[in-house]
Amino acid sequence: MAMQYNRIFNFSAGPSMLPVPVLERCRDEMLNYRGSGMSVMEMSHRSKVFEEIAVNAGRGYLIDEDALLRGLESGRVRAAGLDVYAAEPTANSALTSHPRVTCTPHIGAAAAEAQQRVGAELVSIIDEIFA
């Protein structure tokens, strides 16, 4: 049975734009990432499990995109989450279209879903004012 959440939509950048099932999976794996018995925050950055994780939401130049793609193709890197790239907009379609790469806009409010939510909220506010 799905849990009901009283959600407030934050139209800023970041994880506020993630769907509830994704947030629930993150919650579940926070204490026990992939059955390792540890959270990602507890495990050694030299461990095999940790090496499978690549997330870059800071600066694009921090990740060698070609090396990341090679790691994904070889299986050494299990998945990657990116919202910044070495050059923006990125032309690296092999990386951004890879099935184990999740790409989000660096500005979460720029996502189509966020714009739709803002539009619906504005209409609701205007309706209240002029009702």
UniProtKB/TrEMBL annotation:
Pfam families xref list: 2-Hacid_dh_C
Superkingdom of the source species: Bacteria
Gene3D superfamilies: NAD(P)-binding Rossmann-like Domain
Record-linked InterPro entries: D-2-hydroxyacid_DH, D-isomer_DH_NAD-bd, NAD(P)-bd_dom_sf, PyrdxlP-dep_Trfase
Domain D-isomer specific 2-hydroxyacid dehydrogenase NAD-binding per the UniProt entry, residue ranges: 53-108
Family: Belongs to the D-isomer specific 2-hydroxyacid dehydrogenase family.
Keyword Ribosomal protein among UniProt keywords: no
SUPFAM superfamilies: NAD(P)-binding Rossmann-fold domains, PLP-dependent transferases
Organism ancestry: Bacteria, Bacillati, Bacillota, Clostridia, Eubacteriales
Protein name: D-isomer specific 2-hydroxyacid dehydrogenase NAD-binding domain-containing protein
Species of the source: Yanshouia hominis
Key words of the record: NAD, Oxidoreductase
